[in-house]
């Protein structure tokens, strides 16, 4: 006879909802756990069953067939190749959830500055980051996209909606780049 999954009691659901709201209300993200919360919220605990069902990246790397899909954008402007490249992106997104892009034409110094800008943002004082905290808006800073799921990740995210393209003033100051250092094409 198969084991039946037990549903959480209403009190447990209410406790998790209160803990999620408390964490969200701090607007401090994961970094806020070390300064603003006395007890670890229950949604960060994973039962042995949940852990067993979620292999770590280390486990994935042990498999010899592990290779991140690579999408080559060389030829993307050619109508004959465009459809094939888009199909590769769709397939990689569905099967993997991510992929590496090569031959995209973005200079290395621009990519480095983008990474440095995100690092500068996360290293700022809490008071500066909280002005961007939320799950809506053109530029948003938030903790974990699935706080109510089984086994949440310990991650803070800075996200930007790219269409329509936000003006530079919409970006956090730490992420803005001097225009003379970027090549726009």
From TrEMBL:
Name under which the protein is recorded? 1-aminocyclopropane-1-carboxylate oxidase-like protein
Q: Does the keyword Oxidoreductase apply?
A: yes
Q: Which domain of life is it from?
A: Eukaryota
Cited Gene3D superfamilies: B-lactam Antibiotic, Isopenicillin N Synthase, Chain
Name the UniProt key words of this record, in alphabetical order.
Iron, Metal-binding, Oxidoreductase
One Pfam family assigned to this protein is: DIOX_N
Quote the InterPro entries the UniProt record gives: DIOX_N, IPNS-like_sf
Give a GO molecular function annotation for the protein: metal ion binding
Residues covered by the Non-haem dioxygenase N-terminal domain: 68-163
């Amino acid at each position: 006879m198969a084991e039946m999954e037990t549903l959480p009691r209403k009190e447990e659901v209410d406790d998790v909802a209160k803990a999620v709201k408390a964490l969200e209300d701090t607007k401090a993200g994961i970094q806020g756990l070390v300064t603003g919360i006395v007890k670890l919220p229950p949604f960060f605990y994973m039962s042995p069953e949940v852990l067993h069902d979620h292999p770590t990246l280390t486990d994935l790397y042990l498999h010899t067939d592990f290779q991140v899909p690579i999408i080559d954008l060389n030829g993307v402007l050619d109508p004959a190749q465009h459809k094939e490249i888009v199909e590769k992106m769709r397939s990689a997104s569905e099967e993997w959830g991510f992929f590496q892009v090569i031959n995209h034409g973005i200079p290395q110094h621009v990519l480095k500055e983008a990474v440095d800008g995100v690092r500068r943002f996360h290293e700022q004082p809490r008071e500066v980051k909280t002005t961007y905290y939320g799950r809506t808006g053109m530029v948003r800073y938030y903790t974990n996209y699935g706080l109510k799921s089984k086994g949440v990740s310990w991650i803070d995210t800075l996200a930007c909606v790219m269409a329509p393209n936000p003006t530079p003033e919409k970006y956090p100051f730490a992420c803005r780049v001097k225009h003379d250092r970027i090549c726009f094409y």
